[in-house]
Amino acid sequence: DEQTMLTAASGTGVTFPAGSVMRTLVVSVASYTVTDLKIHPTQWKLRSVSEVVEPTPPGEPLALPAEVTVAVSMTAVAAEQAQQRTIQLAFLNVSSGMWQTVPSSLDSSTGHVRGLADFLSPWTVMSIDPRRCLPPQFGAQCQRTCQGSLDATSSVCICPSGRFGFECAQQATRNP
Question: What distances in angstroms separate CA 80 from CA 58, 83, 123, one per listed residue?
Fold first, then answer.
């Protein structure tokens, strides 16, 4: 086993450390640009600012984390940051259809955003408006976390049977 890098000319791709793929399989990485990335309606504060890297087969677990690298335009990053939006790497949870951000780093000298993955999934760089709440957080500056389900249209916390008020919807939290 040895490290394997699957990358596009832009530098977008995945680096698999030796021993990360647990069984014999064909892993491919597609890199493509999108103009209308499908984002779940409850994730309206997210927008993709990069191409998508899609290692397959989706959902395949890795024994060791692989490094995902996605190229991004520094002009686009500057425009997003001017609007006080943050830049983060995100993967598509293929089960829920929701994009989830992960800890990542931006190398402004190369225009690459990097993060670690312990399974295969589509990845992109998202611009996030930190002034808005994502479920289950809601309320002024996301000071409350819903322990039930958050209605996507009204931002009302719907408590499960037997829970209500402070116990369900008033647990104090703050967005980082």
Answer: 29, 5, 19
d(CA 162, CA 152): 22
pLDDT at 174 over 50: no
Confidence of residue 20 (pLDDT cuts 50, 70, 90): confident
Reduced to 3 states (helix: H, G, I; strand: E, B; else coil), residue 80 is helix
Distance, CA of 126 to CA of 83 (rounded, Å): 14
CB 98 within 8 A of CB 44: no
Phi, psi of 150 (to 5 degrees): -100, 120
Hey, how many other C-beta atoms are within 10 angstroms of the C-beta on 82? 8
Q: Which residue spans within the chain are E strands per DSSP? A: 4-7, 13-16, 28-32, 46-48, 52-56, 61-71, 86-93, 98-102, 104-107, 112-119, 123-128, 137-138, 144-145, 149-150, 157-158, 171-172
Q: How confident is the model at residue 9 (pLDDT cuts 50, 70, 90)?
A: confident
pLDDT in tens, 94-114: 777 888 888 899 999 999 999
Alpha helices in the chain (DSSP H): 74-82, 165-169
Name the pTM for this structure: 0.68
Strand partners, 128: 46, 86
Query: Are 6 and 55 within 8 A, CB to CB?
Result: yes
